[in-house]
Amino acid sequence: GAVVSQHPSWVICKSGTSVKIECRSLDFQATTMFWYRQFPKQSLMLMATSNEGSKATYEQGVEKDKFLINHASLTLSTLTVTSAHPEDSSFYICSGSRVVLDTQYFGPGTRLTVL
Amino acid sequence: AQKITQTQPGMFVQEKEAVTLDCTYDTSDQSYGLFWYKQPSSGEMIFLIYQGSYDEQNATEGRYSLNFQKARKSANLVISASQLGDSAMYFCAMGSGAGSYQLTFGKGTKLSVIP
């Protein structure tokens, strides 16, 4: 149980375009979903936390107008990277947790390359 | 502020031997959770084990055990009977706060299992 999927698994886009990444909890309802980014050979950095039906809470230094997060249902959250630039190239990973103080279960990640 | 320190960038272990991966943490919270995740080269984060700050016994999950020493603020992961498939990055993480845990990750330890 506690499986999370992400789509797409990788994407290459041109600079200036927008990219949407989907995160789905397949066999549980994720009250809270988290979005992380990971640069090569580095650790995961939390970008934002979202609760179903409410606005996401962004970490300091993360531009909320650039990284749009929507958590419309208990099984789906989306991250849209708007007007992507090469410096946005990274590995984006989402996670979901079922209830308060629950373990986070991670998706397989999406590798974004902006040319 | 929370901080996770993993002092071993890389570790080698002989197949079938046990290995300990170090993790120390710093927090002013009274209630928190400690997690270990495995990240193989594919990128997905695999949950291994959890220890709550008020748990009196060390957590165990199959070949994984967590050596929790609260006074020393350490939460080392012990992997017994190492297998070749254990070669991966291992991240220690801490979560606390109201609502779902927000995780702070250490920099990780790359474990290589030698046949």
Q: Please outline the major beta sheet of chain A.
A: 7 strands, mixed
* Portion in beta strands of chain A: over 45%
Alpha carbon gap, first and last residue of chain B: 41 Å
The chain pair with the largest interface is: A-B, 26 and 22 residues
What share of residues are in beta strands of chain B?
A: over 45%
Helix content of chain B: under 10%
| Overall radius of gyration of chain B | 14 Å
Structure notes:
The complex is a heterodimer of chains A (115) and B (115). With 115 residues, chain A is mainly β. In chain A, strand 9 and strand 10 form a beta hairpin. Chain A has no helices and eleven strands. Chain B has strands at 3-5, 10-14, 19-21, 24-26, 33-39, 46-52, 60-61, 64-69, 74-79, 88-96, 102-105, 109-114. In chain B, strands 2, 5, 6, 10, 11 and 12 form a six-stranded mixed sheet that branches. A four-stranded antiparallel sheet of chain B has the order 3-9-8-7, with no helix packed on it. In chain B, a hairpin with a 4-residue loop joins strand 8 (64-69) and strand 9 (74-79). Classes of the chains: A mainly beta (115), B mainly beta (115).
What is the topology?
The complex is a heterodimer of chains A (115) and B (115).
Chain A: E1 4-7, E2 10-13, E3 19-25, E4 32-38, E5 44-51, E6 57-58, E7 67-73, E8 76-81, E9 90-97, E10 105-106, E11 110-114
Parallel strand pairs in A: 2-11
Antiparallel strand pairs in A: 1-3, 3-8, 4-5, 4-9, 5-6, 7-8, 9-10, 9-11
Chain B: E1 3-5, E2 10-14, E3 19-21, E4 24-26, E5 33-39, E6 46-52, E7 60-61, E8 64-69, E9 74-79, E10 88-96, E11 102-105, E12 109-114
Parallel strand pairs in B: 2-12
Antiparallel strand pairs in B: 1-4, 3-9, 5-6, 5-10, 7-8, 8-9, 10-11, 10-12
